[in-house]
Structures are given as structure tokens and as C-alpha cells.
Amino acid sequence: MESVDTLVVGAGVSGLATAAALGPDHDTLVLEGDAEIGGYCKTVKKDGFVWDYSGHFFHFKHPEIEAWLRERMPGQRVLTVEKKSFIDFRGQWIDFPFQKNIHQLPREDFVECLYDLYFARAPAELVGPEVAAARKGDYATFHEMLFARFGRGIAERFLIPYNEKLYACDLRTLDKDAMGRFFPHADLTDVVRNMRHADNRTYNATFTYPEGGAIEYVKALASAVPPSRIALGEPVVGIDLAAKVAKTPKREIRFRSLVSSAPLPRLLSLAGVAHDAAAFSWNKVLVFNLGFDRKGKQGAHWVYYPDKDISFYRIGFYDNIFDTDRMSLYVELGYPAGAPVDVAAARARVLEDLARVGVIDGHALVAEHSVVMDPAYVHVTRAGIAEQARVTAELSRAGVRSIGRYGGWTYCSIEDNIVEARAVAAGIQQGET
Hints:
By secondary structure, the chain is α/β, with parallel strands linked by helices. The chain contains 14 helices and 19 strands. Among the domains are: 2-43 and 58-83 and 209-277 and 380-432, NAD(P)-binding Rossmann-like Domain (Rossmann fold, 3-Layer(aba) Sandwich); 97-196, no CATH class. The strands form 4 sheets. Strands 6, 7, 13, 14, 15, 16, 17 and 18 form an 8-stranded mixed sheet that branches. Strand 11 (245-247) and strand 12 form a beta hairpin.
């Protein structure tokens, strides 16, 4: 039986960042079930278009991490872009985030949103029982948080319908902090100030994107891992925690430490860890990458669509990053985890809706690609938080660490994955001495 000090499951950002941080002298093996590295950060090149599996734009808060990656991307053109995002509200584009730009709404909608925001702390008879109950500060769900902080007008016009389309679930099932630091909060002062002095900065106000797609960052991570330490097309099919042995279709491997970025429920099943499967839920996202014969809308990188009569919840413009002469889009549709996905029907509906909202107007579709991401966004719930803490502790006692968005069952950025992977690698190395 083969033995390795650290076995890494998954050759996406988290797994490769772990192996890279452990260094070439560490006895590491990375197992990846797919034939390519990258996980959801794969890039597709077709007929002159460059697309990711979805819009993986990088938001670096740690300059040393960005510098480390760029050093390993020789000759790669990387742009730093000030994000321009909009919300399609009944056919009118308003600046994102919605809650800070209600002054751009039609007058009646603006007055109602501002009134509800102002009276969010008024007597219960003025705001209704739902808002009054939620604003006490002990609200438990994402849905209650939206009403308590922003009032009914803002919540019902954008925050609830949009996030229900994205997460494909009832927001009452999500924890109040389901999006953590990534949710753009704003109070009454912020909203009023923004009417005169626009400040729409969010955590991802600036992003970087390489000309070769997101895979270039993945390749940079992989460049720090000896190729012989990465085994592609070799999924883990079982883990014996007591014996510290992982099984693949090809072999059995004894490990001292194991780091996994696989979805947490899958890891638990592989390892035979008893758990409450109902505590872990998620959505799946159908992504269409679409290339057209000519330029379209300019000056936008993202547009959000809260209208439930429109099939997609968000579109992104690759061509507006590099100012190419043909429109290049990614279009995202959210589904419950168990829902069937009819790609052909969804494609026809997407093209109809793109014309309906004015994104395409006589454009010819000349190239396309689609992928279903399952899981896509995990549902951060109270039950899931408690169960994740319990099973993670059990895995840790066996020398297994579950990391990343799916391994940690959380909402995080790609840079967060790298930060976490480096911390895990440091802990493993410290345990050696």
C-alpha cells in the first residue's frame, strides 16, 4: 500500500493552494476525479471567445497573494477593472446596490422604499407585524433580516425576489448571516448620502481578470506543485478514517493528513461519517456562455434581474472587460438541487428573455457553451452551521480537514480559499515539528 504524508482531494483552487503552500519538499499527493485541474474555475475557449464555467472575477484584499500569482503568470495580460453593476428594475437600469440607489427609482417606488426604510423602527402599527417582529434584533432568518434592516419596500422590490431566484429556495430557511461580509448593507444615512455623493463600493468594487480566463490563476497555483504530485482522473471512492486510508479505483493510499475541498456531504458519505443529510442543502446553477456576432450593451459588467418573469437572475459581459468587438455573455439561472434541468428549453427561453430586456437586438448567436454547476451556492442555515461544526470536529480528530466554499459549506471568495489553504498548510507543517 502506498503512503503519503498529506493527501489532497480536489485539484481546484483550494486543493492546489494547499499543495503549493506545503511546498515541493513536502510529501503531498493531489487526487482529482476530473481529467483537468480547476474545479469550477475551468476556462472554455471557443471560436475566439474566452469563457469560464461562470464569472470568476478575482477580488484581492491581500496584495502579497496577488503578487505571488502574477509572478507565475508570465506574459499573461491581467486587467484591473472598476466594476460597473446595474439592476434591471422594470426595464430601467439603476446602480447596484439597490438599497443605496432607491433615489433612481420611479418617484412612487422611491417614496415607498424611503418611507419603509425610515419607519423600520417606528411603532408596530405603522410597519406591520412581520417587520416589527424582525427588527427586534433577534431575527433568525435571512428573510427577517431583509425586512428588519431595509423595510418592506426595498425587500419586496429587489432583495427578496432576486435572492430567491439566485438561491432557488425560501429565504426563511437561510440563516440571517447567510452571505456574511458579502452582503452590501446600508442604513438610512448611507442611502440619503448616496443621493448626493454616489458611493456604490462593495467588497468586489474592483476586480482583476486575466486575458486567458480564470484558469490562468489556477495554472499559477499548479506551477508551484510538482506535476508528479497531481493525479488526474482518479476520484476518491472511499475513506477509512480509523485506518487513515483513502481508496480510488486504482489504488489504496495511506495518509497522515487529508485535506478535502469536495462538497462536505460527499466527503462525509465517503468517510462513513453519520450526519444529518437534511441539514445540508444547496442550489444548482445553469450557466450559458454565449458569443454574438457584434457588440451590444457597453459600460456594464454585471446586470441583475429580480423580475421572476425573466428566466435568469444575472448576466455578465466578458467583452466589456477587454473591450472586444463581439458581445460575450455569461447568463445564470438558479434551480433547486433536485429540479430537472432542460438545457435546450432553457436556452430558447434565455434568448427570448435577452431580446425582451434589450440585451440582444437582431444579434446572431455564433458560439455557445453551457454547464450545470451542482452544487453552486450552498444554503447557509442554522441547522447546517451546527451540523458542520460537529462533523468538522469529528473529521479533524482523524486528521481530515474540509476546506473551501463546498468543503467548509459556506459563502466565501476565491481569495478566501487561498488564505484558508495556506493556514491549513501551515498547521500541517507545524504539526511535523
